[in-house]
């Protein structure tokens, strides 16, 4: 039942910046898995859903912010695969009509429980988690969905890549996706994360602890544009231009920053001529509606 979603396509990205420097870039379109069971969020959910089913749980409970891709993906996946869903949402001033993300989650039947920012800080507190688990008879998935089962699902995306490559590049939020990719790659391949938030070195610690003692990876901190969900005119016009030229949509929170970073890194000759790079489009397209509502339709759709 959970393998119903097919492998995602891998297509060459033929930009002049790449061709000039003899860098071959392929994009793995995880965004096409589903409009709302978005890319890496589906990869992270898959084995959690299987485990929840094996345990006989009927309800999934998880956490997220007001614009969370993970919340929408969980709501949509639960709807599709027959689970009840509960979302603990940061911000007790919000409600289920506050923005398109919460509207979608709610339309998929997710019960939204709004908590104060202070209470939300306890999202990793074992006592609160146990309480929520018992109270709702729920299978609990952490914020952002990064646990061992999540990493296993992400590693599966690397198994779908049937060509050799030197680098695989992805955006980094919590680091769970990068860690899963690291688990899936082989000797001679490097996983290259572009941080989308001002993570400094705690992200490296996080990925180390999730991915074990691999040295086949690094995180670049030069393309976060000031931090999580921060942006400037340059980033927005890049995203709009990229879509016009390639027909590939990018979101302003994650994949836009990754792609901006990748092109800039290639221009700066970071990768040897002749390198082959896989770029993972992790999805996140559902977030554009909420971003546009908040920021005057900046992203062209
Ligand atoms: C959540 C998300 C990420 C970040 O993934 P992490 O595993 O938290 O690093 C990247 N891209 C998109 C589109 C996301 O929704």
Describe this structure in words.
- Helices cover 41% and strands 17% of the residues.
- It has 301 residues and is an alpha/beta fold.
- The protein has a six-stranded mixed β-sheet. Strands 5-4-3-6 form a four-stranded parallel β-sheet, with helices on both faces.
- Helix 3 (69-81) links the parallel strand 3 (59-64) and strand 4.
- The two termini are 33 Å apart.
- The structure holds pyridoxal-5'-phosphate.
Instruction: Report the average pLDDT across residues.
Output: 94
Ligand set: pyridoxal-5'-phosphate
Biggest sheet character: 6 strands, mixed
Number of helices: 12
**Estimated radius of gyration:** 19 Å
CA(first)-CA(last) distance:
33 Å
Order of helices and strands: EHEHEHEHEHHEHEHEHEHHEH
What fraction of residues sit in β-strands? 15-25%
Indicate the low-confidence ranges by residue numbers: none
Question: What general outline do the C-alpha atoms trace?
Answer: globular
| Helix/sheet category | alpha/beta
What is the spatial order of strands in the main beta sheet? 1-2-10-7-8-9
Number of strands: 10
Overall helicity? 40-55%
């Amino acid at each position: 039942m959970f393998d119903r979603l097919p492998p995602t396509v891998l297509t060459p990205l033929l930009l002049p910046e790449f061709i000039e420097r003899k860098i071959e870039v392929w994009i793995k379109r995880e965004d096409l898995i589903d409009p709302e069971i978005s890319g890496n969020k589906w990869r992270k959910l898959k084995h959690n859903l299987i485990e929840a089913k094996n345990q006989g749980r009927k309800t999934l409970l998880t956490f997220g912010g007001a614009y969370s891709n993970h919340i929408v993906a969980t709501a949509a996946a639960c709807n599709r695969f027959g689970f009840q869903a509960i979302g603990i949402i940061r911000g007790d001033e919000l409600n289920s009509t506050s923005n398109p993300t919460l509207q979608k989650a709610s339309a998929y039947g997710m019960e939204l429980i709004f908590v104060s920012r202070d209470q939300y800080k306890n999202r990793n507190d074992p006592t609160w988690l146990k309480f929520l688990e018992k109270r709702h008879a729920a299978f609990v998935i952490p914020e952002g969905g990064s646990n061992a089962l999540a990493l296993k699902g992400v590693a599966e995306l690397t198994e779908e890549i049937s060509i050799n490559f030197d680098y695989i590049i992805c955006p980094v939020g919590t680091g769970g996706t990068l860690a899963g990719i690291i688990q899936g790659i082989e000797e001679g391949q490097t996983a290259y994360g572009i941080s989308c938030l001002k993570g400094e070195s705690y992200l490296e610690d996080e990925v180390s602890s999730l991915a074990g003692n691999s040295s086949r990876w690094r995180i670049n901190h030069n393309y976060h544009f000031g931090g999580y969900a921060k942006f400037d005119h340059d980033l927005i016009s890049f995203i709009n231009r990229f879509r016009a030229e390639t027909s590939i949509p990018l979101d302003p929170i994650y994949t836009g920053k990754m792609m901006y970073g990748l092109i800039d890194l290639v221009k700066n000759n970071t990768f040897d001529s002749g390198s082959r790079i896989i770029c993972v489009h992790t999805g996140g397209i559902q977030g554009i509606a909420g971003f546009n509502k908040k920021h005057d339709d900046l992203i062209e759709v």
